[in-house]
Structures are given as structure tokens and as C-alpha cells.
Task: inverse folding
């Protein structure tokens, strides 16, 4: 562990509106803890920022350790257009993937549970896509029509 842990403070500025928000001070303390889960992709957005950085923001449903469904955000900060095109071709709405990576648990207003540039792969062969889709449908307690 470092001798001294630094407090992080910053501001976020909306480049479209120029509106600036302070981020509450926090300790940046990377632990190496990671999340492994299956996800069902609900939305994929690609952003080119004014500083020419690229980001892909994904909204997904994920399975917890007992199979219940929770909302998950996935963010990729990209290095190149090629990397962006690869991810956009491999991660599509409706797809089910295995994901693994560093995560943050934030307030719902700030994204909820977020995976940061995770590794991803197709569903392992020992699982049936049809069965996993059914688990997402039945175990999604936010879906009031899940049993019909």
C-alpha cells in the first residue's frame, strides 16, 4: 500500500452546455476487485468528444451470483477508431456476453454499477443462450410482465 493515499477532487464540464459540476472529493484506491457476469446488451452508444477522445457507453442487464438481474453500465475509453469499430461490431443490442473487469458502484444518478473497459467474450459453450435469455426474462424483477 502507498505511504500516503491522495484525495481526488475534480470538476466535470458538459462540452455542449458549458455547465460545470463539482465531483465530491474521494480517495482513489484501486483494489484489483473485479466483477464476472453474463450481460444482455440493451443499448450501445458511441461518443466522439471535443478533445477527440472516444468512448462507448453501454446499458445492459447483468446476472448476480444467484441469477437475479441488475442494471449495469459498461464504459470503454478507446485508443483508436479501429478499436471502436471492433467493439461496435462485436457488442450489439440483444447480445448476451460474458464480461470481466474492474467495476465501480456509484449512485444511480451517476451510473449505478459500472464496468470499466472490461474483457468480453461469447457465452461459454456449457451454457445455452436460450436458457440464459429465459433467466434474464424470468429473473428481471423490474419487468412487471416477466411471467407472461
Result:
Amino acid at each position: 500500500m502507498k505511504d500516503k493515499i491522495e484525495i481526488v477532487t475534480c470538476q466535470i464540464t458538459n462540452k455542449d452546455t458549458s455547465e460545470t459540476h463539482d465531483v465530491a472529493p474521494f480517495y482513489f484506491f484501486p483494489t484489483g476487485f473485479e466483477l464476472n457476469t453474463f450481460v444482455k446488451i440493451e443499448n450501445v452508444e458511441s461518443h466522439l468528444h471535443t478533445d477527440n477522445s472516444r468512448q462507448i457507453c453501454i446499458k445492459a442487464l447483468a446476472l448476480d451470483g444467484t441469477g437475479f438481474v441488475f442494471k449495469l453500465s459498461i464504459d470503454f475509453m478507446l485508443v483508436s477508431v479501429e478499436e471502436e469499430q471492433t467493439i461496435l461490431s462485436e457488442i450489439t443490442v440483444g447480445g448476451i456476453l460474458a464480461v470481466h473487469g474492474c467495476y465501480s458502484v456509484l449512485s444511480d444518478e451517476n451510473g449505478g454499477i459500472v464496468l470499466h473497459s472490461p474483457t468480453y467474450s461469447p457465452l461459454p459453450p456449457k451454457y445455452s443462450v436460450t436458457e440464459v435469455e429465459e433467466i434474464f426474462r424470468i429473473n428481471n424483477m423490474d419487468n412487471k410482465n416477466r411471467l407472461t
